[in-house]
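ok so i was messing around last nite and threw this chain in just to see what happens. nothing serious, just curious
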Amino acid sequence: MICVSIARGRHRHVIAEHRHVVEQGAKLVELRIDYLEGPANLKRLLADRPSPVVVTCRRERDGGKFKGDEATRLILLRTAVAEGADYVDLEEDVAASIPRYGKTKRIVSLHDFRRMPDDLEAIHARLATLDADIVKLAVMANQPHDNLRMLTLIQKSQIPTVGLCMGDIGTPSRILAGRYGAPFSFATFHHERTLAPGQLSYDQMTRIYHYEQINAETAIFAVIGDPVGHSLSPIIHNAAIAASGLNAVYLPFRVPREHLGRFIDEAPQFGIRGLSVTIPHKEAVMSKLTRVDAIARGIGAVNTVLFKDRDLIGYNTDEPGAMAALEEALAGDGTMPGDFNRLNALVLGSGGAAMALAYGMKRRGIDVAIAGRSAKPTEAMAERLHCRAIDWNDRHEVHADILVNCTPVGMHPNVDATPFDKEHLRATMLVFDTVYNPENTLLIKEARERGCTVVTGLEMFVRQAALQFKLFTGQEGPMQLMREELKRAIGPAKY
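result:
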């Protein structure tokens, strides 16, 4: 179950949002009366309520907005109990002063917005002794291991426990709480009105992650990186999972570089069966693997990891995904694989995507030149792949049949930038931009205006994700569905 937190300044807005979210399917709502601008009228808020409620009046030192004196706050909490609130949230130091009455259940809670306490288990045991029906712990996650520690505590607890790790590192704990036995997890009414760091909206919890369907048998897949909150992979992978009828979920795990090794070691304890790997871990993760496929080894980077028995197997789906899109576009122009050795390509950039594209084209006989904005990594890549390194300022002098942008130039929000001047685009060129947000970058728009054949980054992203999905699940990735979900997530305003 998901408890949706509503925090508005006026009673009528609280009541309206309560009814709205219940119409959307919510079964439990938290009324944050500390956000009300005037005196709280609990009788009004609780009368004819459309669902059970948790009444919370959080003081500022615990992350709330209540600015009155403590005596007034305690009166409000006692009033909530007297008026028959279904649950009341009480901090440890006041729990003893709010007596049990009627059918109101007591949530005894602790919030730490700085860290996960070393003595978390002892704190939990202490809260449980305060006549608690539910213990709630909300602490700041500073490393991925904090999620595992919290979820394990929930699972082992003899008393129902809501345990949440705050911050973007802690997001998985919010999504997996029910899988480990938490009576509910928290979500906000709207994604733009989060009440705690890392909190997801009710819509995100239900539409993207299908929280209510997650159970002890649910297979876990994840994307790891740092940062990772911007990733759209959870949207398209979870849509594919739902359409395929699989009992699985795909999560974002922010894993700082220094915690990568421990995270990989502990991943099976989360139930993780497969990982998408993004910056900055594509190369570093290889040292933790028992096997690496030939393409990933040739590129020197992994973007997919499978946990299979005792093996950790690394793959790279960027290369086959990108090359499938490129080959289809070339075929549309009448260029067949046998003609590839007569083509030359200019790759802009020297990062992971550039390596994958340059490696793939080189492997197919295309003559490749690389122009990066930093000379040393460009020269190192060119030497590894036996390509030509081009000074960034000389990129327009290369007469290329294929132009591939692997830089972030043109990515949202800097949509008015392009890495290649329009006047140097020729109608005979194929232009491939790996940026997918927006799909129609300025480079793609200008290439179309010049009559070029174009391949967008959205196509590469979807194809590599579909290949990952096949590796994860054994089923074909539903590319059209994934494509539609990605387009919807990017939104027309960003085109």
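not much to say yet. The chain is about 35% helix and 20% strand.
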